[in-house]
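Researcher: Here's a chain I'd like modeled. Treat it as a single chain, no partners, no ligands.
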Amino acid sequence: MNTDKNDNKIKILIIEDDPVITEFLCTGLKYEGYEVTPSTGGKAGFDALQQGTFDLIILDVMLPDTDGFKVCEHIRDCESDIPILMLTVKKEISDRVKGLDSGADDYLTKPFSFDELLARIRALLRRSGRIHESKRLRAGAIVLDLETREVTKNGKKINLTPTEFGLLELFMRHPHRVFTRETLLNRVLGYDYDGGTNIIDVHISHLRNKLDDRPPHLIRTIYAVGYAFHPEGANT
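Model: Modeled as a single isolated chain. Structure tokens:
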């Protein structure tokens, strides 16, 4: 679970009018232990900011009542230093520059994977001093470095694909938690992926092979449900 220094939940305000993306964000972030408040437009976002205190804002550029650039500028005019992560379908460099110039701290284009979104959120929270997080995750002889994105076992580097890395990071952050295939699919491959869930089984199989994951297994199959990570099964 992600917590601040007072052991309270990190509070995130989402200003996004797309119900599919909003549900995707709310479900995933709550699963990670964040407290989430969704709003569907600029005015609703302003009202939420006046009524509560937040640690980070996820702000869409295209809103029904205004645009995210104006919302961002207004937040900064109020002298708020809250980290702002902007979301947009626009990929032009000029739009990214405009977003950053309006006061955003980071910029993520749609579609995006939840794994990348979480990495951006954690980086912004660390930068702002709202969380203090270890740069490495460990399970027995396995070490995952969050900065270099390298994985080693007994000091030997293991080459993982971005999807395999995302799965392993998710598992190591949440030992013993059971993940359905649908959850893993959305979290690692993104809300826009329209393939079957059996692709997750393929990625898990490859990850197990690369980790030399033998019985009793680090990554355990939960029959008819999905997978769970058991660090006590780490092979030396």
